[in-house]
C-alpha cells in the first residue's frame, strides 16, 4: 500500500481536482483506492459522488482512532458503480468522508500523539493498494497529520509567482517535518496544474520551476480545462466523461499516476 498526501500551502490551485483526477485514473486501472478527504470543506467527498450515511466521517474517526473501524465507515464512491469489473474483481474506490468536524485538528500546536491519529486510523487500510489524502491548503495540524501517515507528498502548483513561492516553502517544510517526525517521508514530486499553453507567464514560470525543482517537477503537466467544473459538478470521473478534451485529460492523469507512483514498482505495473 502506498499512502500519498496531495498538498499545497496555497488555496485555489486545483489540489482537489488533482486528487480526483488521480482517483479516476486509479479506478480505471483497477487499483484498489481509498480517498481520505481531510479538507474540512469536504469537496473531494462531493466530487466523488458520495452520499454520507450513518458511517463516521474522518473527523470522528480521528477523535477515537484506536476504536475507529475504518472498513465499516468508508463509503463506496458512485464512480465505482460506473466502472465494470476487471480481472482482479469489482472496481474499488472508497472514501473516508470529509466534514467540518476535522477543523478542530487544523491548528498549529498538535503534539506527536495527535500527529499519529491518522496513522492509527489507516492501520485498517490494508485492503487498498493506494491511499490518496486530500489535504487542506495550510500547514496546520491536518496537513502535518497527513504527512505523518504518508509515504509520499505530492505538491500541486499553478505556474504563477505566488504558487511557485508557496511550493518552495512547502518543500522546505517537508524536509523539516521529515527530520523531526517522519524520516521515511519523501516528496513524490510537484504537479503543475491549470497550465495555459498560450500564456507567456506560465511558460516563464514552468521554466523557473524546472530550474528550481529539477526532476521533482512531474510530467505531464495538467492543462486548464474549461469543462472541469462541469465534470466535478456532475460527480463524474474524467475517464467516463464524453468528448476528446476529457479523453485527453484522462490520459494525462493515467501518465501522472504512473509517474507519481514510480517508486512503488508493484503498483506501477498496474497503472501502465
Label this structure with key terms.
272 residues, alpha/beta, seven-stranded mixed beta sheet, 13% strand, globular, disordered C terminus
Q: Outline of this structure?
A:
The protein is an alpha/beta fold.
Describe this structure in words.
With 272 residues, the chain is α/β, with parallel strands linked by helices. 43% of the residues lie in helices and 13% in strands. It is built from 13 helices and 7 strands. The chain has helices at residues 15-28, 43-47, 58-63, 70-73, 78-81, 112-115, 117-122, 141-149, 161-180, 200-213, 228-233, 244-260, 265-271, and strands spanning 2-7, 33-37, 75-76, 93-96, 130-134, 152-157, 186-192. A 7-stranded mixed beta sheet has the order 3-4-2-5-1-6-7, sandwiched between helices. β6 (152-157), α9 and β7 form a beta-alpha-beta unit. α1 (15-28) crosses α12 and α12 runs antiparallel to α13 (265-271). The radius of gyration is 17 Å and the shape is globular. The relative contact order is 0.20. Residues 5-227 form the CobQ/CobB/MinD/ParA nucleotide binding domain.
